Amino acid sequence: MTSQSTRVPQPSPWFHRAGDAAQGDWFVDLGTQESLVRPPGWTHTGLRVADLPADGEVVLAAQEEERIVVPLSGSFAVEVSAEDGAADDGTYELAGRVSVFAGASDVLYTGVRRAATIRSAAGGRVAVASAPADQAYPVRHLSLGEVPVELRGAGQLSREVRNFGTPATLEADRFIVCEVLTPHGNWSSYPPHKHDEEAEGETALEEIYYFEMQTAKDMPVPSAAEGGPDAMGYQRVYASDDREIDVTAEVRSGDVVLVPHGWHGPAMTPPGHDMYYLNVMAGPGPVRKWLISDDPHHGWIRKTWEHQDVDPRLPFDG
Question: Whole-model pTM?
Answer without folding.
Answer: 0.95
